[in-house]
Amino acid sequence: MNVLAILESDIIKNVIEDILTDEMTIEDIKVVKPTFDLRKVDYEDIGMIIIDLRNDYEKIVSYIEKIKRNYSQIKIVVIDVRKRLDLFKRLIKSSIEGYIVDILDRDEFAYIIHKIIIGKKFYDLDLFEESLKENRNGKDRLTIRENEILNLVGKGLNNKEIGQKLFITENTVKKHVSSIFTKLGFKSRKEVISYLKKKDNMYF
Prior knowledge:
Blueprint: E1 2-6, H1 10-21, E2 28-32, E3 48-52, H2 58-70, E4 75-79, H3 85-92, E5 98-100, H4 106-117, E6 121-123, H5 125-140, H6 144-154, H7 159-166, H8 170-184, H9 189-198, E7 202-203
Parallel strand pairs: 1-2, 1-3, 3-4, 4-5, 5-6, 6-7
Helix pairs in contact: 6-8, 6-9, 7-8
């Protein structure tokens, strides 16, 4: 696996390079600054991107969202020492694989990266629980029928299939789905499916 590390801090650069060098599955590590022209990267050859988000992050976040849309197989790990909930929630919707707020221990960080490489996800526990709490509050506002439909959307069923399963019209399902999206702040079915599936392969 080839890794692209977008790092602003030279201290973090040295730590991450040292840790990744010991990971047997990693073949090559390319470290660049956030100012690097990321259009020059051959993304077909990248397996993981590690990004240290610090100051003006809007451009990098847009970049992450674009990468996940076009190269969903690339695993993305974000380091955010400022521990920003709004940023976390935005990136979770892009299905990033890791969100780390600090590198306190070399072995722990190496363990996290290894788990992500083999298909697990890692999110800061405090931010994840805060995000879940906000979504649970929204879910509590759903009707019984909307909760039923939410779970079926999470299983990948389309409106017609949901209607057949619940013996209601496709148009009724469409209205319920629209209401669910409004209450929970989702923009697409993909976001719903991704969010509900995250708990199945999560570790902390």
